[in-house]
Amino acid sequence: MPQQEQDQGQKQGALKRTFLLIPGILLCGVVTIISLGVQAAEERVFDHPYIEALVVAILLGMAVRTAWEPSERWRSGIAFSAKQLLEVAVMLLGASISFAAILASGYLLIGAIAATVVIMLAVSYGLARLLGLKAKLAILIACGNSICGNSAIAAVAPVIEADGDDIASSISFTAILGVLMVLGLPLLIPLLKLTATQYGILAGLTVYAVPQVLAATVPAGIVSTQIGTLVKLVRVLMLGPIVVALSLFVARQRKTGTAEEGAAKAASISPFKLVPWFIIGFLVLAALRSFQLVPDIAIAPVTKTAAILTVVSMAALGLGVDVRVLSTVGGRVTAAVTLSLMLLLGLSIGLVHFFK
User: 29 lies in a domain?
Assistant: First the structure.
């Protein structure tokens, strides 16, 4: 009987948490409907949407957030839409990608991605140190900019034993820069005369998170989205070896530590922190697609669902961005993160011209 009561309590708790998500999700849905309406109106008037629905959703969400701060009643649903729904969208995208595309990219591209990550780790770290930042904070900034933003920071922080202030300082600017990259990167397509392939590579190399790559490449078409996601996945997969290398380095730096202890610390980190569930789902669906277990008739609905979920998530992202956070971030941290990102962008622009 007590077990039945416990199960009943768990069900009621799960149901309550689900209901708490509804207001925020509905708010994001309203912003999404308005944004899709704006895009449809553009298509009727101009035959082409000059501002995509996902961009409208971000800007409209930011405008709402500037005028009104959501209470706790709205925040959980907004956070769910910004994270979980966008992760589902990324996972669904795997159904439209075959591993043949990865093989077609060739070893040259994969090597270029790995080299870019390693170079930017060294450059970002050196730049942060030149600006007078502490070593641990410099490592967090370097990993965040070079690999995958907050996910890399969260994975590396316990390994190097970073304190809360360093973690907060290194991630506080990510939301702002992430949105700016999503909004600004497509402007480089006509400016630099980039092909769909080149833009996909550029987005995959420079945008912080996998979901943000999806948001930045959807306006450029499915080819850019597929290539950008693949490039970004290669960057994310480098997080594992880098975490292990940092663990061994930290253990060696501490006189009392050993290489075995460093390896044990790296092994203790959950694989799902290094490779998130939605990336695993993406790879599984891509594998199913590669073996032709996903029918062609299902691709269009799945892709459309992923696109709509992306707009919902961009509305949530805008609703969660407080531009006033800029005033709380130290000048040297802001300079280190911004300059590092600009250097990454410059290196990536130079690189993409080798790939047609």
Answer: no
What six digits make up the tokens of 115? 């080299």
Distance CA 285, CA 293 (A): 9
Q: Is residue 125 part of a domain?
A: yes
Total count of domains within the chain: 1
- d(C-alpha 245, C-alpha 2), whole Å: 48
133 — alpha (psi -120 to 50), left (phi > 0) or beta?
beta
Tell me the per-residue pLDDT of 205-238, one tens digit each, with 9 for 90 and over: 999 877 788 888 888 888 898 889 888 888 877 8
Nearest-angstrom CA–CA distance, 283 and 268:
24
Has residue 184 been placed in a domain?
yes
129 domain-assigned: yes
Instruction: Compute the radius of gyration of the chain from its Cα atoms.
Output: 21
> How many angstroms separate the CA atoms of 32 and 175, rounded?
20
Q: Which of 136, 129, 110, 54 is nearest to 318 (CA)?
A: 54
How many angstroms separate the Cα of 166 from the Cα of each of 84, 223, 319, 321, 350? Answer: 26, 38, 25, 21, 32
pTM to 2 decimal places = 0.70
